[in-house]
What does this fold into?
Amino acid sequence: MTYRWSNIPAIAAFMVGSCVLAQTLNNGTFVGIVIDPSNAAIPAATVRAIRQGTNFQRQTNTDAEGGYVLLALPVGVYTLEFEHQGFQKLIRSDIPISAGQNLRVDAALVLGSVSETVKVGAAVTQVDTRAADITATIYGSQVQELNLATRSFTQLVSLLPGVSSTQPQQPGFASNATVPFSVNGGQTPSNNWLLDGGRNLDP
It folds into this structure.
């Protein structure tokens, strides 16, 4: 009985860690800095992320150095709003974010009334400046509309840059038994499949 109870903290820690990892992998993050016309940081500016086509939104304020971070954002296309008293409100729209992506979006506010608005279309470089990870997202429209010769969802991996596959391109259960993908010249046994943040490989 004592032995069983002693394992509960370890099990709980593993479950919490798995949940945190899943949230990190399945969501994206916006980071950036808000400045004025003289390139000085604007602290306490309001930054709001609105997921287009939904009611989801998340808001934060910039720190003393003008920086902000918006964590755990569901994958989608967003509108970012930046505002502070004494400056025109800046709206940047049509900014897509993928799972596991850290996307930097800076804002330069113009002097004026907060009731005045400056709208800017998406012109964000899709480069993760906080990590060396290379990520991509396969969207639902691709899953629904693309024909898969092997009838295996794993064939969709070949859509990503740097991925090559020796998987037979014909239907059949035998072709789905393994996942022989090479990423950027790596060995196929080096692939690690995750499902909701947890490792998903047969022993």
About this structure: The chain has three helices and 13 strands.
